[in-house]
Design brief:
It is built from eight helices and eight strands, in the order E-H-H-H-E-H-H-H-E-H-E-E-E-H-E-E. By secondary structure, the chain is α+β, with helices and mostly antiparallel strands. Strand 7 and strand 8 (about 245-250) form a beta hairpin.
């Protein structure tokens, strides 16, 4: 039984994966023939240095993608932004807990940036934006829930919504609990109302109950990478993901 569906058009997009820095490398990565190289960090040159230095490794990946997806003329300062990350600032939180257990005085700055909406805050401060900022974490289906949230904002009248998805490896303390092959990635879509007859990529997402017996595959890629590969592979019309009790059906209408 179909539970719901949304459709949207991607006005602009950007992605960052370590070591994937050419058109050929991206094609190989999308096809699964090339893995990310290392765990480097993007420069995020578009952000003022004082704010850029506060961002974590995952935060810089998210911010790099967010800035790169902005069109040359920018976006309205009241454009809503949705940041999607399953783990967010988990590494920073673990570091703070370790310092607390060792009796070390915690850094107020590090503490304030350990929250899940830290990067949304940095992005809005840097751009002096006054729009709605939302941070979402929803397990394996974090990206799907972020898309639903963004489409809800479009339905409420927002002309565009910037969706930013990013994640990185779990901190060492949680490695034994990893349920997928975590790796750094980040991407951003500037979304607007669906226009299937226009020249821009238009996607639909439908969801229903998951099929019985479907479970997570420990060696599978994170959901955010699956969605990015589907989006960049122009020869794929659809993709189905089973996650968190749902069957997520992605479709392309190019």
């Amino acid at each position: 039984m179909l539970f719901g569906d949304v459709s949207f058009t991607v006005a602009s997009h950007a992605a960052w994966v370590p070591g994937i820095d050419s058109a050929e490398a991206w094609q190989q990565w999308v096809s699964g023939n090339l893995s990310a190289a290392g765990s480097g960090e993007p420069a995020v040159k578009a952000m003022p240095p004082m704010l850029r230095r506060r961002a974590s490794a995952t935060g810089k990946i998210a911010l790099e993608a967010a800035y790169a997806a902005l069109p040359a003329h920018g976006i309205a300062e009241d454009t809503p932004v949705v940041f999607a990350s399953r783990h967010g600032e988990c590494s920073r939180s673990v570091e703070l807990l370790e310092e607390l257990s060792n009796g070390t005085t915690l850094s107020p700055t590090a503490f304030s940036l350990s929250v899940h909406n830290a990067n949304a805050g940095l992005f809005s401060i840097a751009r002096r934006a006054r729009g709605n900022s939302i941070a979402i974490a929803a397990g394996h289906s974090t990206v799907e829930h972020a898309v639903i949230e963004a489409c809800g904002l479009l339905a409420d009248g927002a002309p565009q919504v910037l969706l930013v998805a990013a994640d990185g490896p779990l901190p060492e303390a949680f490695e034994d609990y990893a349920d997928c092959r975590e790796q750094p990635f980040g991407w951003a879509w500037l979304m607007q109302a669906a226009d299937e007859d226009g020249p821009l990529p238009t996607l639909s997402l439908q969801w229903s109950a998951a099929e019985a017996g479907q479970t997570a595959v420990p060696d599978a890629a994170p959901g955010g990478i699956d969605v990015l590969r589907f989006f960049l592979a122009r020869d794929r019309d659809g993709m189905v993901r089973q996650a968190d009790g749902r069957r997520w059906h992605w479709m392309r209408h190019d």
